[in-house]
Amino acid sequence: MPRTLIKNGQVVTSEAVRTLDVALEDGHIIDVKAAIPAEMDDRIIDASGLLILPGIVDAHTHIKLDTGLFKTADNWLIGSRSGAAGGVTTVIDFATQYPGQGFREAVEDRLVEAQDSIIDYAFHCMVTQLPVGAEDELRTLIEMGIPSFKVYTTYRPNYYMDDATLFRLMKKAGEIGGLVIVHAENDAIVSEATQHLVNSGWTQWRYHAQGRPAVAEQEAVHRVLFLAGQAKSPIYVVHCSTSHSVELVQQTRTMGTNAWCETCPQYLLLDERVYEGDHPEHYILQPPLRAEEEPSKLWNLVQAGAVSVISTDTCDYTLVQKREFQEFTRTPGGLPGIETLLPLIYTYGVETGRLQLTDVARLLCENPARLFGIDHRKGFIRPGADADIVLYDPEPETALKQESTHYLAGYSPYEGMRIRGEVQLTISRGDIIYERGKLTDVVGRGEFVPGKPFSIDITDL
After folding, report:
1. Rounded to an integer, what is the distance from CA 287 to the centroid of its chain?
2. At what angle do helices 243-254 and 214-231 cross, to 10 degrees?
3. Is 429 in contact with 26 (CB distance < 8 Å)?
4. CATH code of residue 324
5. Which residues pair with 7 in a beta bridge?
6. 142-188: per-residue pLDDT in tens?
7. Is the distance from CB of 149 to CB of 173 less than 8 angstroms?
8. Running DSSP on this structure, what letter comes out for residue 409?
9. d(Cα 337, Cα 189) in Å, to the nearest integer?
10. Is residue 413 part of a domain?
C-alpha cells in the first residue's frame, strides 16, 4: 500500500498543538514532523484548518450488553459504526463472567461477539464470582491481555461483590499487575431508598434519582478507596457523578494510593431537573443525574486535573425498551453516547475555555490508553503507534439531532444542544472508516488489542 501523508493540520497531543505532518504506512504512524516531503505514490490528505487528534479511546462502553435482566438492541457492527462516526477508534468494553463461567470462557465468548466490529477493542473483565482460594485464576486474565477487573458494590445478587471478596481481589490485583475498576454505590442505601419509593407508590420515572441518592455513591467510593489503600492495589472509580466522589479519589491519590477516576458527558452537561421534564425515561441511568450545581463543580475538578478520563458508559437501549414499563424499577438504565463524546467535550470543554485542546488528547486518548495498558498501540500520535487518527473541523456549528446519529436508540439525551465542530475523517490502522458523513467500513476489520499488565505509578499520570 502507498504511504498516506496528512499535511497542514494542527497535531494535538497532551503536550502541545503544533502544525505538523503525519506519515502513515502499513497501519502505523511512521513519522510526525513539520513539512514531510511528499513522494510520488503518496496518498495526500490535506488537513488545512483541521485538528489532527489521536483516535479516541472510549474506556467505558457497553456494546451488545446483556445484564441478565435487559439487553441493549445494538450489536458490535452498529456500536462500532457509531463510534467511528464520532472519531472513536478503540473501545474498552466488558467481558462478563456469567454464572458458572471461568474467566477464559467469559473472554472467549465476548471475543466471538465482537468479531463484526469495524474498530479495535480491548476488554475489562466483569468479575462476578471469586470463591475463596480462586484468586490465582485472575492470572488467566493478565495472560489474555485483560489487566482490568470490574466489580460492583451494588446490583445484588447479579453483580454485587461483598467487601471481603473485593479485598481479596484487590490484594491479588496488586500482586499480578491488575487494575481494579469499581462501580461504587452502597447497595443497602440504594435498596432501602428504592423500597421506600415502591412502598409509597412513587415508582414513576421522575422519582428515579431519589432511589439512588448521592450519599450511596460517596460512601461506597470512600470505602473502596480505603480498601484499595490497605490492599496496595491500584483502583479506578468509574462514572463519578458527584464532585465529592472525585475529591475523595483526589485526596486518596495525594496520600500515595494509585487511585484514578472518570466522569462522563452526562454528568458534566445534564442534571436532575430533566426528571421533571417531558421525557424522564430518557435519563434513567445508574448512577442517576445529580443536583443542578454538580455539573459546574465536576467541570472545575476536570479542569484541575482531578479526573483522569472522560468516557461515555454508552448503552444503546431503544425508546421501545425505555417506555415498555412506566416504573423506573423496570426500565433499563443507560444512555447512548459513544458517537457524541468528542463533539460534546470539544464544544462544552474547549469552546467554553474550561479545557485546552491538550486536555482533550489527555482525557480522551492518552490517559485511557495508558491506564488500561494499550498505549504501545493506541492513544498517541507518534512513530510506531497504530495509525488511528481523527481529523476534526472546529468551525461548523449545528444543533445535535438524534436522526443524524447511528444509534438504534431513537433519541439523544443531548437533543438540540449546540455543537461546535464535527468529525471529518476517522482513520483506523491506516484505513479511512468514516469520511465526511459517510461510513466506509469493512465488517469485522476491528482487532482485539491485548492490554499490558498494569504498571503505572501516580507520579506517571
Report:
1. 15
2. 20
3. no
4. 3.20.20.140
5. 46
6. 999 999 999 999 998 889 999 999 999 999 999 999 999 999 999 99
7. yes
8. S
9. 28
10. no
